[in-house]
Amino acid sequence: MRLALVLLVACGASNAVRPEAPPPPKVDSAFAPLVAQIGPHLRAVVRLDLAARAPLLDDLLATLGQHADCHATLTTLRLAVGEPLRVAAEIDGDVDAARFECLLGPQLVALATQAGLAITDRPGGIAISRDQEPGRADAALVTRCASPSCLAIELGPTSRQVHLAATFTAAATAFRIEGIDFSRLVTAVAAEPGLAAAKLHLDHGALVGEVPGGVDPKVAQLFKARFAEAFKIPSSSMRPTLVEGDHVFVDKSRPPVAGDIIVYRFEDRMYVKRLIATGGPAVTESDTGMLVDGAALPIQVVDPKFHWHEDDPGREEHIEKDGMLVRESINGHAFLTVRTKPAANPGAWTVPADAVFVMGDNRNNSNDSRYTGPVKTSAIVGRVTGIWASWHDGAPDWNRMGTLPD
After folding, report:
1. Which DSSP symbol is given to 170?
2. Would you list the domain boundaries of the chain?
3. Which stretches does DSSP call E strand in 59-186?
């Protein structure tokens, strides 16, 4: 497995002959301390009004599972970037390093530390800096960042990598994401007049967009409400596909089909399960497996002595588990399940036309349609399309970040 999470600032071509560097940007006196830190190779400066983006920041922190009791107010961000991989930033507001780390939470603090970022107190707010020579992983991503101010990220194992490159200027943020199929999402967004400012389109399978610096925050809310949202996996019911601490991206642009992983609402809570059948057929579970409309789902025992551990929600410890790792298939879509004993709740259920039948991949530890009944299609939020972040035991799980669940 190979994985890198790297800030690439002011990158050029990856060969020995680099393009001529553009002249340094003009800056006002407010950036003077940052320019002094960057030194002679300043490439870009950015100023953001954080107060105007407070609702979006609150949504992001809530998605990451952070608490709202840190009592910090962020007003303005000033950022300067330069070569090689130098970053200097100041955040103004009623905040110090301790409260800012409280806002981020231990997982993001660990991620920032691994990325070489230092967070310190300063009069009127905090300072953030990174001063590091590029390594081999940095060089491998240089070609994705040919602009004066750029961020490049590579996630996931070598076989299923996702790449993100973003360029920041005072007027707009341009980005490119490769490794995830966004074709349906782009088609749906293109038909929404309120999202025209994002300029989303596909380029050889990659999602490309440009967000103007002054875009209305309501646009982001509209995108979240209609097309895409992020969720945190709270339990072990979807093991081995999704595990506690995974943060997943959910596509709302098209109806899910049997075999997809979906997020849905039930009794004012969000659940993540596998869609087994859409409305119409009967679903039967027995000790020999699952049947949909009388047809058995193909299964293959991958490991009869599979061992894993699950988090105990009531105590800070792991529960050791032994069982079978079984590959199932629906509509030609194969995925893994785990079982610790025979069928958890054998029986037969009829799926109404306006509902779907869902189950957890952790078949003996999942509160799903076998117990609560079919899920109304109106309660479906969307289908899971990728793991964008993952933390376990207080540390990033690099091998899972950027992967696409089966």
Report:
1. S
2. 4-170, 230-396
3. 73-82, 86-94, 118-122, 125-131, 150-155, 162-168, 172-178
Q: What is the pLDDT of residue 3?
A: 31
The angle at the Cα of 288, spanning 284 to 290, to the nearest 5 degrees, equals 30
Q: How far is Cα of residue 167 from the mean position of the Cα atoms in its chain?
A: 19
Residue with tokens 């340094």: 24
Output the CA angle 48-176-260, nearest 5 degrees: 110
Supply 312's token pair: 């105990």
Q: Is the pLDDT of residue 327 over 90?
A: yes
- DSSP H/E element including 43: strand 42-49
Query: Can you name the residues that pair with 265 across neighbouring β-strands?
Result: 270
The model's pTM is: 0.67
CA–CA separation, 165 vs 176, rounded Å? 5
Residue 347 neighbours by CB distance under 10 Å: 10
Q: Long-range CB contacts (< 8 A, 24+ apart) of 29-33? A: 30/78, 31/78, 31/80, 33/88, 33/90
Confidence of residue 57 (pLDDT cuts 50, 70, 90): confident
Amino acid (one-letter) located at 240 = P
Question: Quick one: which H or E segment has residue 3?
Answer: none
- Comparing CA positions, the residue from 357, 339, 397 lying closest to residue 262 is 357
Structurally, at CATH architecture level, domain 230-396 sits in Ribbon (2.10)
